[in-house]
Design goal:
Helices cover 68% and strands 0% of the residues. The chain is mostly helical and 407 residues long.
């Protein structure tokens, strides 16, 4: 039996991830500067300042939808169908991708804690280093912070992993348990739909009065992951329909999705957005928009242009950039706070460059080699690209590939 493809890159999805991680870095930079008494973007209009520096939360929500979509879609291509998912192999692949950079990050944070470096030391009022490490390694940083208070920023970013990995702990087990028999298959999809529908309620004040938990709870965030999973199943079905990918429907999906994303990111028109925001369905609308863009992108499967390459590159390395960007924020903007010289925009630009560099170094020298080694995979750049239905115009540019993994 031939080895199955294990990984696929779509330029449009990498572009979404690039804008998402950019929003996260800009938000955390603005928070750091405001905490230092340096409001950022005051020369901009309130609307533009909001769009640039207040979309980090939307970026995280977009990441959740992308994660659910890609992991489900790749599992469909790797195993042939969700019913044939092998949980142990699924976990091994997740471990190979997530664990090496995470363990390295925790080692660095532990050293900085013992060195009592300001901004990285876990305060005794919050907890101890062993408690923080246990929370990170068992994917419950979100719960730990809700109970004990905020950890240092470089620790806090791990709350998103807590949400994702708890979902993926049960996902392959549910696939095996519910999809093998005809009568239990609807239960699987009902559960995913239930998570999508319950998400907005889990973000409302009635669910919890804890401000941290209302933002970082499991049920308040897995709805977009579940939405991404459902969209991946739909994309897989539609990609097998001859002629559908060449129709106008994929392009229409992309345009509608882009409009929904901009609607939430800009919160405009305000009169229309106000009831959406109050009902906490804005995150769901953002997830739907993201999924529509991904659905159209998979079906059309087109290469991005050269102008979008920097943002797509940032998206490709978004996991590593996300894990390390708080170091760039603390170091670069900390130096600005000390010197108080030069335009703030240049310092923020320096923060973006530093975050990109740190992410590249982690990906190049740790994540990618460890990922391949732990999977027992061959060099993906030596493999022949695998085409999807509807990708008749696809070009092998910038090393686009399916990475063929070991059995």
């Amino acid at each position: 039996m031939p080895k199955l493809p294990a990984e696929l890159r779509f330029d449009s999805i990498d572009l979404l991830r690039g804008y998402s991680i950019l929003g996260v870095i800009l938000l955390h930079s603005a928070i750091f500067l405001r905490g230092s008494g340096h409001p950022v973007g005051m020369s901009l209009s309130p609307r533009l300042r909001f769009i640039i520096f207040s979309n980090g939360g939307n970026g995280v929500s977009t990441f959740f939808a992308i994660s659910g979509f890609l992991i489900t879609f790749i599992s469909l291509r790797r195993f042939g169908s969700l019913v044939r998912v092998r949980p142990l192999k699924f976990y091994r692949i997740r471990f190979a991708r997530i664990a090496p950079p995470l363990l390295f990050l925790l080692a660095i944070l532990s050293v900085l804690h013992f060195a009592d470096i300001k901004g990285f030391h876990v305060k005794p009022a919050v907890g101890t280093l062993p408690q923080a490490l246990f929370a990170a390694l068992t994917f419950q940083v979100n719960w730990f912070e809700a109970v004990h208070g905020w950890l240092p920023p470089a620790w806090t970013v791990l709350w998103t992993l807590s949400v994702e990995e708890n979902f993926y702990l049960f996902f392959p087990l549910l696939c095996v348990a519910l999809l093998k028999k005809q009568w239990t298959r609807p239960i699987f999809f009902v559960l995913l739909f239930a998570l999508v529908l319950f998400g907005p309620f889990a973000r409302m004040p009635w669910y919890t009065r804890n401000a941290i938990w209302s933002y970082q709870s499991y049920l308040g965030n897995v709805d977009n992951i579940a939405l991404g999973c459902l969209t991946a199943v739909l994309a897989d079905r539609l990609s097998r329909i001859s002629g559908f990918a060449q129709s106008q429907w994929p392009r229409i999906c992309q345009w509608i999705g882009a409009v929904l994303i901009l609607f939430v990111a800009c919160e405009w028109p305000r009169a229309l957005f106000r009831p959406v925001g109050r009902s906490e369905t804005d995150v769901t609308v953002l997830g739907v928009g993201t999924c529509l863009v991904m659905l159209g992108s998979v079906l059309r499967n087109r290469s991005g242009n050269i102008w979008s390459f920097p943002m797509r590159w940032l998206g490709k390395h978004s996991y590593e950039v996300y894990l390390t960007h708080e170091f760039a924020v603390m170091i670069v903007l900390g130096e600005f706070r000390r010197l108080r010289q030069g335009p703030v925009a240049l310092w923020i630009g320096g923060t973006l460059l530093a975050a990109t560099l740190l992410g590249f170094l982690m990906a190049r020298f740790l994540s990618e080699p460890a990922n391949l080694a732990l999977r027992g995979a061959k060099d993906p750049l030596a493999q022949r690209p695998v085409e999807l239905v509807g990708s008749h115009r696809r070009r092998n540019r910038e090393r686009r590939y399916f990475a063929v993994r070991g059995a």
